[in-house]
Amino acid sequence: MKNPSAVHLRKRLVLPFLLSVLAVGAHAQPVPRVTGPGDVNWDTRFGPPPGGLGLNGVVEDFAELPNGDMITVGSFRDAGGNPNADVVARWDGTTWHSLGTGPGFSIAISVVIAPNGDVIVGGRGGVARWNGTTWQSLGSGSFGTTSEVCALLLLPNGDVVAGGGFVNLGGNPLADDIARWDGTTWQPFAPGLNNTVFALALTANGDVVAGGAFVNAGGNPDADCIARWDGTAWQPLGSVFNNYVFAVRVLPDGSVLAGGSFMNASGQPDGVARWDGSAWQPLGAGVGGVAIALDLAPNGDIVAGGGFSDRSSTSRNGIVRWDGTTWQSLGTGVDGVVWGLRVASNNDVFVGGAFDAVGDSSKPMSRIGIYHTPTGVGLPETASSPTAFTLAPNPAHHTVRLTGSTAPTATLLDALGRTVREWPLTASAELDVRGLAPGLYTVRAGTAVRRLVIE
């Protein structure tokens, strides 16, 4: 069993591989830093503090509140000059706000939003929940001060699954590296795993997919680094991965996307692959390095962040987008490593990590950046018009708030264009999406449309 007290488990495992990739690149050539026209879309406000609104510590993860504000977590202190905005802060589009006095962690690594809007944060020392007024520890003292929670997942019944680097949670020998909070205590979630869990995702049928550094999940010799819990046993997804999995997403068609430090058959850094139900499929030539974070744009494009650099004449540093055919850059990217990202409901791409500027160093950007485009990341939808509206949170789990529309009703369409649900609208309407299969949907209100991802 690994030592759960290791400092920042993801970084400890990924950095040796990452440094080798960035040193030699996919073609063993120096990495060019090419200025790209897209850099104009990077927000200019996030220079280093105190003069800028950037942060002084690594950003690890994001989650969007129903009102569109973005919860940001990491190792930073005093966000926006606020002495209480340590490791967790709320960005309202203009400035940083604290959430009380914070959860008390030395570093926050993962965050999810509960259906009622509560903020649930995992980090070094456990899991805590902010109800808008106070922080509450989930199982105070259960984790110990050196254990880390790297991933959180909300189940349909309201339980919280935590993955990370911990052993014998709550004194239970089966609660290693993955456990379930039932509202009162931490319970084992399936047979425990034998190494760190970095990512969790829920499939349409309720199975849980875990990615990490574990091997032989549930005693299955093929379930290395990624496995699926079907309610009875851990199942493999295809052949054995040859390195760690740091990010997992379930795509609208039910396929599973994995990001990590694995190689392709030729031994080159690949970083991203898709499980189609039968086999792992590449996405082009991959990202050429380590993919640490993944998200889905409303039009179905895949956004990947991590530690990788230019593999061609197009600049791709740390953050890229897969449009279904090729990998596209976001300007010149960033000059460091991306640890977390989120495509917001207004289609801005929030990027966090360990970087100081855009990829060509022409624009300061301290640990956090926002990439703006007029219609989102490759998004062919109505994004700004007199009848446009917003959806938040997006992706959604249980309910989504629609604001800004004067239409009398909203219609939800599935990927085939079939009507799934209809709702009467008010100025700020709560749309119930419970019971729907995870995937990509379209919301139509009047003449405006928005894409909605349901997880």
For the termini, the CA-CA separation is 32 Å
Unreliable stretches: 1-7, 21-37, 311-315, 376-386
Radius of gyration: 21 Å
- What profile does the largest beta sheet have? 4 strands, antiparallel
Overall geometric form: globular
Please identify the structural class as seen in this structure.
Answer: mainly beta
Beta-strand percentage range: 35-45%
Widest β-sheet, arrangement of strands: 1-2-3-4
Q: State the helicity in percent bands.
A: under 10%
If helices are DSSP runs of H or I spanning 4 or more residues, what is the number of helices?
1
Instruction: List how many beta strands DSSP finds.
Output: 34
**Mean of all residue-level pLDDT scores:** 83
Would you mind describing this structure in some detail?
By secondary structure, this protein is mainly β. Helix content is 4%, strand content 37%. It is built from one helix and 34 strands. The chain has one helix at residues 9-24, and strands at 59-64, 70-74, 88-91, 96-97, 108-113, 119-123, 126-130, 135-137, 148-154, 160-165, 178-181, 186-188, 197-202, 208-212, 226-229, 234-236, 245-250, 256-260, 272-275, 280-282, 290-296, 302-307, 319-322, 327-329, 337-343, 349-354, 368-371, 390-392, 399-403, 409-413, 419-424, 428-432, 439-445, 448-454. The strands form nine sheets. A four-stranded antiparallel beta sheet has the order 1-2-3-4, with no helix packed on it. Strands 5-6-7-8 form a four-stranded antiparallel beta sheet, with no helix packed on it. The longest helix has 16 residues, at 9-24. The protein is globular, with a radius of gyration of 21 Å. The model is unreliable at 1-7, 21-37, 311-315 and 376-386 (pLDDT under 50).
